[in-house]
Amino acid sequence: MNKKKGTLMIQGTASDAGKSLFVTALCRIFARKGIKTVPFKAWNMSLNSYITKDGREIGIAQALQARAAFREVAVEMQPILVKAMGDGRCQIIINGQVDQSVNYQKKKNDYLRIYKRTIKEALKRLRQENDLIIMEGAGSPAEINRTTPDFANMFTAEIYKSPVLLISSIEKGGCLAALVGTLKLLPPAQRKLVKGLIINKFRGDFDLLKPAVDFLENYTEKEFLGVLPYLKDLNLPEEDSASLKLTNFSSQADNLKAAVIKLPHLSNFTDFNSLKMEKNLSLEYVENKKNLLSFDLIIIPGTKTTTKDLKFLKESGLAAEIKKADQAGIMIIGICGGFQMLGRKLVDKYGTEGNIKEIEGLGLLDIKTKFLNEKTTHQVKVKLNLNLKFKNKVPKFSFEEIFRGYEIHMGQTEYLNQTEELFKITERSGCRANYKDGAVNQAGNCFGSYLHGLFDNDNFRSAVLNKLRKNNGSDSSKLNDYNYQKEIEKDIDHLADVVAENIDTDKLLNLSRR
Q1: SS3 for 397?
Q2: 452 an active-site residue?
Q3: Annotation says 446 is catalytic
Q4: Which entry of 27, 336, 409, 446 is annotated as an active-site residue?
Q5: Would 6-235+489-512 and 255-474 be classified into the same CATH topology?
Q6: Count of CB atoms within 10 A of residue 249's CB?
Q7: Homologous superfamily of domain range 6-235+489-512
Q8: Is the whole model's pTM more than 0.85, yes or no?
Q9: Catalytic residue among 265, 378, 409, 452
Q10: What CDD domains has UniProt attached to this entry (predicted)?
């Protein structure tokens, strides 16, 4: 191997072991050293995705990792993304574009060939243009049902015989057994690629752990590389639903209360990471029928199966509770699929979203959505609709303010009865544009948008929260006035500093160049 080139792979004993954030930390650490570093994840199954500048769709974790490495997000960083739709169906995204919605098992052999070629080509391009590739696995390399081959883990490691670090979270117990068991289940050739072990999310006195670590090192004959502490106040977005915390309560009685409806196929829950960081806002994910009248804000998020999840809302009784909240004047916001659900009707004659061909919406916005086979994926810039008649009733956005976000949707929305759009899209994928986005009701308390990442815009988020505080008579001075993007950068640097303090990263760099 060229001495200037290196690859290093991080695999875990399970989901939520800390692989994604560890890769994020390493990307920042090596990028700080002036090493041209890039993240890579060959294959992933996730409903949290991000759109590149050229309109390609990849997992959101690789977007964060690219940011940590001071690099522009590119589709080569994650060439295969699978979005589960339930009932054995999935949407397969290859090189950032939808292939088709299929029952994977029926076309498995075809996809095995495509996956192999796609992964190798993407990794080759990255290797040609970079000094160091930090690769992330998915789940565990010892998941026996994924050995034909396991594209996410050892298949990728074997392409360049990349050294593998195995990380395990001690938070939920069974960490040492998981490390031993994972190694035991690997074939000898793959076990040989594992060069070191790491324990993550440790709380307590390392001296109490050391005897177990010594045993682990002797028993597995693998070098123990370090222990990473549990970072309580880290607020970086994560792609795995296993990391999703259902509540973010505060004991202060005058805090704002927001509910995010936890749909069965909830996607892009990272849209609400900035709300989670608000110190005077309690955020709760609601998945069962519940009286919503005590909340100041109700958010219906995006979903991979809009019609199916709308049916869930109705059958669970949550739809009725949302309508009651609307009648009470509580602010309701729909994002992407949630925006579509707020309309009069959803039509899916092609079966894009599932088996439901037509379903009545919640009827809170005067719109109608038709699902198509083509997917809309763009980074966008928007401004508030200058002609909005009810602008005095919505949060006080500046008409010159530019908000950034990204579109990921299959449906096209029709505006009924002179319904007004909330935003004007002024730029799509770097090109000037003039499209409608979103809608608002006449009362001004219910609106929606296709844009993911809206709440990441500080002025948008502040305007919404200020409106809520005005509605309930709260003190607006208690708002947590912070710059979300600066907080993300601060957390990435803090994460990198902690990893650098606890792991010999120079050793990892040397290991990557063998």
Answers
A1: coil
A2: yes
A3: no
A4: 336
A5: yes
A6: 10
A7: P-loop containing nucleotide triphosphate hydrolases (3.40.50.300)
A8: yes
A9: 452
A10: GATase1_CobQ
